[in-house]
Amino acid sequence: MSEKIQIFDTTLRDGEQSPGCSMNLSEKLALARQLEKLGVDVIEAGFPIASEGDFESVRQVAEAVRGPSICGLARTGRADVERAAAAVEPAARPRIHTFIATSDIHLKHKLRMSRAEVLEEVVRAVEQARGYVDDVEFSAEDATRSDPDYLVEVFSAALEAGATTLNVPDTVGYTTPGEYGALMATLLERVPDSARAVFSVHCHNDLGLAVSNSLTAVQAGARQIECTVNGIGERAGNASLEEIVMALRVRPDQAQGLDTGIVASEIYPSSRLLSSITGVQVQLNKAIVGDNAFAHEAGIHQDGVLKAAITYEIMTPESIGRASNELVLGKHSGRHAFKDRLEELGLRVDGDEFERSFRRFKDLADAKKVIYNEDIEAIVADSVVAVDDRFTLKGLTITSGDATAPRASVEMVVDGESCNTVATGVGPVDAIFAAITELTDTQSELIRYQVHAVTAGLDAQGEVSVTIEEGGRRVIGNGVHEDVMVASGKAYVHAINKLEWHKKRRGADEPKGI
Ligand code: KIV
Ligand code: ZN
């Protein structure tokens, strides 16, 4: 019998704080639904006092996602806790997560508070939160640089005040496995009645130790791990969910009977969905979910794998939901077959989203010989994250080559009206962007343009991500199409629509990080 480690997913909160990873409401909902399928125990859906948008997304996730606990973050201030309580109120299992720093460095330079004042704040905030919900988590920010004696005092007071989870963040990614495991053991031993609370770990990856630190601390007695899909998060990121889960699964002999409730076959679809929403691809050699994680390049390895996969493979791609690259559907497949395939891939898509996905699938099936599972995932991600768009790309034609100036003829619908124009540029992408900029009458600056092949093969779909900035707001748009130029136009329009979405909310909705 294994003992369960709870997975607290903070992709939508700490993860979203990483540069380029901000998500809009429909994207957060799509990801939260996927996290539910992945089987996480807690979803930290946002920081409700940070902005109207954050509040609304926590509230809507709380309404829509009924399996996991839904958590809202709050500093210890009254207004923060009240706002978090209101945001998680519709949840089947609401949690309030309140935090304050406990290291002398933070007390002196950031909070300008004494240890006694911080202690008072902790008790007040936890008691206030318990007035709203039964499930209250308290975090001692920068715990790993705090005086352990003071930490014992703070956690004891938080437990006494009613906290049910006590989190020990390595906020700046400073600790090491030995030190962190020992700190966890000390806290469990010295906090009176520590067994009444779940001790939790939250590790940042500044030294590349976030996963090792988390695993060491659970071996010392912690029972909740806070982590993110693809390890996204502030600076070098948070502990990566997929690495933690698979380390425990692949090495049960080392896991001391500990396991998570994660549905491993949903790991890869979750990773892909997040990348397609944010446009941030994981590095090629990223453990578990990187493109090369299961690629065997050296002849001697290939030979071994062909004879027996176990020679060089410690887990199968299928075990994390990376379907082998097989033909899944063709151009004669109908709605029913497409729906069945979506279900097999664990993609829940209904109504307009289904219709949009199906139309994209048929177009792709006309243009591309082989359709892989990854193609279908990319189509669905592309169709599901569409928001109430002001701008729609209807068509584009390109003329380019070494003997002619690149020209793009672009048709769009802008605020319900059809329009078109022709523009030139230094290259075909530049020409497309110039035409779209003219039709949408926008003026963002292009920061980054990336192309990624969704699958192998010369007829692979291109996934383009475009980062643009306007008025200090940076957004990423994505587009997928078998023609990279069309994917580029779609990605640019997607990004401009996101900027418009932010503009509509400006004022009430300026992000305030922690
Ligand atoms: O890293 C950190 O300390 C945090 C807390 C809010 C838990 O993200
Ligand atoms: Zn953090």
Secondary structure: elements and pairs:
Blueprint lengths: L2 E7 L15 H14 L3 E5 L5 H13 L4 E7 L2 H11 L5 E8 L2 H8 L3 H18 L2 E7 L6 H14 L3 E6 L6 H14 L7 E6 L6 H10 L4 E4 L13 H10 L7 E3 L6 H12 L20 H9 L27 H10 L6 H17 L5 H12 L6 E11 L2 E11 L2 E8 L3 H13 L4 E9 L8 E9 L2 E9 L2 H22 L9
Parallel strand pairs: 1-2, 1-8, 1-9, 2-3, 3-4, 4-5, 5-6, 6-7, 7-8
Antiparallel strand pairs: 10-11, 11-12, 13-14, 14-15
Helix pairs in contact: 1-2, 1-10, 2-3, 3-5, 5-6, 6-7, 7-8, 10-14, 13-14, 15-16
Describe this structure in words.
- With 514 residues, this protein is α/β, with parallel strands linked by helices.
- It has 3 domains: 6-262, Aldolase class I (TIM Barrel); 321-384; 391-504, Double Stranded RNA Binding Domain (2-Layer Sandwich), CATH 3.30.160.270.
- Helix content is 40%, strand content 21%.
- The chain has helices at 25-38, 52-64, 78-88, 104-111, 115-132, 148-161, 177-190, 210-219, 241-250, 267-278, 299-307, 335-344, 351-367, 373-384, 428-440, 484-505; strands at 3-9, 42-46, 69-75, 94-101, 135-141, 165-170, 198-203, 224-227, 258-260, 391-401, 404-414, 417-424, 445-453, 462-470, 473-481.
- The strands form 3 sheets. Strands 1-2-3-4-5-6-7-8 form an 8-stranded parallel barrel, surrounded by 7 helices. A 3-stranded antiparallel β-sheet has the order 10-11-12.
- Helix 3 runs parallel beside helix 5 (115-132).
- 47% of the residues are buried.
- Mean pLDDT is 89; it is low at 507-513.
